[in-house]
Amino acid sequence: MTRQPYAPLPFTEVAMTGPFWRERLETVLTRTIPSQHAKLKEAGILDSLKLPKPVPPLSIPRNKHNFTTQIFWDSDVGKWIEAASYALSHRRDADIEAKIDAIVDDLARAQSPDGYLNCWYNGREPERRWTNLRDNHELYNAGHLLEGAIAYFRATGRRRFLDLMERYLDHIAATFGRGHGQKRGYPGHQEIELALVKLYRLTGDRRRLDLAAYFIDERGRQPHYFTQEAVARGDDPAAFWAGTYEYNQSHMPVREQTKMVGHAVRAMYMASAMADLALELDDAGLKRACEALWRDVTTAQMYVTAGLGPKESNEGFTEPYDLPNETAYAETCASVALVFWAQRMLHLDLDGAYADTIERALYNGALSGLSREGTHYFYANPLESRGQHPRWAWHVCPCCTMNVSRLVASVGGYFLSRSDDGVAIHLYGGFSASPTIQGKRVTIEETSDYPWSGDIRIAVDPETPTTFELKLRVPGWAKSAIATINGRPIALAPARGYATIAREWRAGDVVALDLPMPAERLYAHPDVRTDVGRVALRRGPLIYCVEEADNPGGPVQRLTLPREAPITVERASGFAGATTLKAPAKALASADGDALYSTRPPAARDATLTALPYFLWANRQPGSMEVWIAESVA
Amino acid sequence: MTRQPYAPLPFTEVAMTGPFWRERLETVLTRTIPSQHAKLKEAGILDSLKLPKPVPPLSIPRNKHNFTTQIFWDSDVGKWIEAASYALSHRRDADIEAKIDAIVDDLARAQSPDGYLNCWYNGREPERRWTNLRDNHELYNAGHLLEGAIAYFRATGRRRFLDLMERYLDHIAATFGRGHGQKRGYPGHQEIELALVKLYRLTGDRRRLDLAAYFIDERGRQPHYFTQEAVARGDDPAAFWAGTYEYNQSHMPVREQTKMVGHAVRAMYMASAMADLALELDDAGLKRACEALWRDVTTAQMYVTAGLGPKESNEGFTEPYDLPNETAYAETCASVALVFWAQRMLHLDLDGAYADTIERALYNGALSGLSREGTHYFYANPLESRGQHPRWAWHVCPCCTMNVSRLVASVGGYFLSRSDDGVAIHLYGGFSASPTIQGKRVTIEETSDYPWSGDIRIAVDPETPTTFELKLRVPGWAKSAIATINGRPIALAPARGYATIAREWRAGDVVALDLPMPAERLYAHPDVRTDVGRVALRRGPLIYCVEEADNPGGPVQRLTLPREAPITVERASGFAGATTLKAPAKALASADGDALYSTRPPAARDATLTALPYFLWANRQPGSMEVWIAESVA
Q: Looking at domain B416-514, which CATH architecture does it have?
């Protein structure tokens, strides 16, 4: 396996300058992240860290399996610290830092002398630590705390939290592994693997990478650890509440897996870690496994919004082409994690198909999880509604809230990559960055009104004239991209999604890239039975939906769209400055009064259909919505 | 309110002579009912009656609310006795009678000295009787036992079971009511009301009718009995697991209810009892309430198969036009109970619309609950499947199994009604009956291959020439019915669904009724969002479906039907001798390889679509199925 020479430029080195992301970023920095701290306090999550006697929350909700989300409250804290630290990387904030330091104080007090750190176990049942990796999220919590510690260190240089986590990791590494006296366990909910690779990249400590590799490779081996662990607890392993180890992707060794199964977020975190390890260890076998899983997800199990996991009961995957719209689970976290995975795949293999998926997940399934004003959320992201899906201000399991805030707060990290002799731009939307190429600092300023417009200007400004490759992603949806350099047309010949411009770049060079964004119809593979006879609308990277707020007069499901109807793009005319789509459509009306069934087809009256970007839905009054619109019958 | 002069002819006076019902009836009598006894034994249900020490079953399944179905096992026994007794009315059987007598022995031993009879409470927690009417089904069980006792008495003349139930009813009547010291309770699950009316009709004991009327009228009054009862138990009434009293239709007094809500079977039993009482008490208020609920159900909440209740969690209703197909609950019991209700409405008001619904429910949503060979069942009756819906041999809650067997075993009771000066025929399919009209015995023989053919011959043979009205139902679907008498055409002028022929009838008179049965397309009201752009097929009383067994080569959801495609009727050529429908259709295929989403619409290849009556689905290999077929897009 040839290592891909491109590595992402960290978001800390990418200033977001375009209107779209500036607005989302400001919202997240000024409203979302502060309000999440208040919610963590309100929900009792912060107080749960105050050992030795944590303040008991008013109530601990338990699900039908007698499972409480409190078992993973540590992870919510870790994820908030991560998101807040990303915010600090944009601008320091003494108040936020004091809040984080106070949490770290609590964590330091909660840590056991041997390094173990889990506030639930230490506060409630310390003797039962490490007895139920399958269900109880200790390693998952450790992973999110570690990500928080890394992010806080990177943002502030303060290493107390990180040191504390290093001690915990020493304990974990001593506890788990293939050595004598060690448990051959691994996480029930994957996450720590990703965090360990991040730590390795920060410190170079190879033990952390090895531990990640151990967790990934041990997963699903026989004899099955979760079975042995259940027996050791005195539980019947066959009584596993989820019914199957597919739920946590431990049904077989990960390298043998070719179908994505089970809980979608666990699956995405696992796949992301597999891709990380494939890269760091130059492991062609892991890369092949990732590619097989990628093919399965993207050709048979992904909503058009890049939502993943249709089913609520396992929060996850079911079977190929099973993509119901109204009952779609499509957890925000899963689309966020798909962004993580797709970015890692892209850096194993610079193929625009991966970047297309980053973009699809980012602008649709992930961003839909956060309200316009930044303090309301979706956990599930259905593609159809009759109005029964209001956004909520918090959730008993608040994982998605901080997943979306950490993604937006670090979004610049997905925009471009550098190698020793080139720059690859993956996403557009306005940024400024100055990577070092061939030893020279090259300032790149991308200016655009993306995703509303595909009219993109890229100013390249090396400190001295420098020859390098500029790779520009030409999105899969952009059928007739054209470009100029300093006003002179150039031939764009994109290969695998990237047009490469190799030349000596000089100060003042400007590439103008035009990605025409007509409104387009999308059709699902006909095995997606829910979408037969239906069409979705896309413009650029955005999937659209029809929402009752723009289409008053009844459920939007009564609107049908003739296949040949022209679709008009209305620039920045819609809600929240969004570009909307309009088309002459038909509104069905009963041809037979209030008869529920009739031999007469419904009357089809002329109407106008207005579509809004999906990520903006449910920000106004409740009402019906659909992404897949019935096509008109002749 | 003018009493409707027509009363149903009991099934014991109607011989089923046509091929369709003879076959179903034979299957139920010879296979279904005997096998159900074996299953009741196997499941521990029969042993649970053996007090004082009932044999504990191997396991008592409990749902997430810690509720066990064992609490209503008495009802399953009652319902089996009812079905078996109907079988005995067709032909006596010493073995079956011995089995019933053995059960009655157990019940007699289980009965408390004060008449109380509930095997769960008497066997396990006698001190808690009558403390939780909301959840624990004591009155429901009593109702089904009473129906069994009435049926057994009618079939055999043996009154031991009936006497025992009369003692129990005396106890119930003493316990519940508005008198001093009585509990103002009523059933959490309605049923006993129906049974009490049946008993009143058998014995003329007015107290039984009064008790039924009390239960119906007390329901939903304030202060709310279930709330008071919960407080008395020490439970928090607000913690009611179902969340709302709509679940059991006690959210308001029944006469004020205009929307059908909650658990569908409870709702149907309640409505049936309301109609019974409206008739027996000449109660125009109750009739109006029934009519409002009827309108709501049939114009907004009924599947095209006459399935009721889309949602699993409440086994019931949701909101107008919410009729998802693949996840339809549509419990068999609910369609069976809709037959009960519709028949009662018909006898409040001889309107063919009610008979149309009897027929729709009988031939579709109810009959689909029983397999072809008579020993496998559906509890839920989805209108679409990807093949994940096999029939099962039994169910943890076996209510539906015996509901369908008792319906089929007594199906003749829905075919015709008599009044002092007329006969009304509601259903066709081959029967012979000799009601007394004007004091004369009139033999009526209806001969047909219905529902496969609408070619119907009715021989009228009075013992002496007699003038009376023969009312023939002209189904709502029969657009161009014609008839002759003794070969001479007559003008049929159906009013409210019935054509009335008043004449002096003589031996040898023959009416030939021709109900043409072209295949028809049905469209749902456009507010049924799931069915927009879709069409269902009907022929005569049968709703059709497309099943993979007849349409191999992929999921049937890939087939689309052009709106103008001619539909051919193939007589008795299909599975199980069924008339099938065929149409030139389109089979969609990906136009873009394995791409999940594409800007190119799927290719539409010529194909043939074969449709089978819905009630016959899932009798061959598992596969996909749908009732609502996507119409082809131009």
A: Sandwich (2.60)
